[in-house]
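Raw record, unedited: Biofilm operon icaADBC HTH-type negative transcriptional regulator IcaR
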Amino acid sequence: MAKPVGRPRKQSPRRRGATARDEILDAASELFTRKGFATTSTHDIADAVGMRQASLYYHFPSKRDIFITLLMGTIQPALDLASDLAETDETAAVKLWALVAAETRILLSSNWNVGRLYQLPVLFSEEFAEYHEARQRLEDIFKGLAAQIVGEDDPRIELPFHMTLAAIEMRDNTGTAPYPLVDDALPEPSVTIADAVLDVLHTDLPERRTERMLELVALVSDERGTEGTDSADGKAGR
C-alpha cells in the first residue's frame, strides 16, 4: 500500500490560516507577543499549531526566521507603498497622511498585536539587522515627507513615525483583529492618528483623504500584482 504523501500533522489544524505557514505565523504571533522570543521554542510553536516540530522546519528554517517574517510583515507593505507614492504627483501632506494611515492599518488588522514585538529586548541583537535597516528606511521616509512640509531643521519631523506607533497601544492582544482589513474603509484610529500627525505639523488636512489613500493603495496593489504576473509570464516564456 502506498504511503500518504506530505508531512503529517500530529492532529487536525487548530490555528487560523489558509496554509500551514499561515498557521505557524498565527501561533508564533500569540506566543511571541505573550511569552517573548527567548522563552518561546520551536517546539512550543509546533505544538500550538498541532504539527510535528520537524514539519515546522519544512516551512521555516529557524525561530529567528519566523520572528523576522512577522516583523517584516509590518514594515514591507508601507515601504512598498512609499516607493510607489514617490512616483506620484501627490503633495507631501497626502503622501504622509497615506503612509501613517497605511502603517497603522497594518498594526490594527493583525489577529495578534505584533507591534509589541518592536518592544522586545531581543531586537537589540545584531541578528535582526535586516529588520532595523528596513525600519530605518521607513522612518527616514516619514521624516523626509515631514521635512518637505515644515523644513529639515524643524524638530517635529521626528514625530510622525513615532505617533504612528501609538496604534500598538490602542489595541488589545486577544487573537481577534480589532479592525480586519477591508477595501473600502480605514480603521477609525488610523484616521485619527493620521489627522493628528498633520495637525502637529500645522498643515491642512487633504480633501477626500481617506478615499484618496484607499485609491492609492488599490492602485499600488494592482500595479504590483500586474508586475508579478508579467514576471511570471516572462519566466514561463523563457
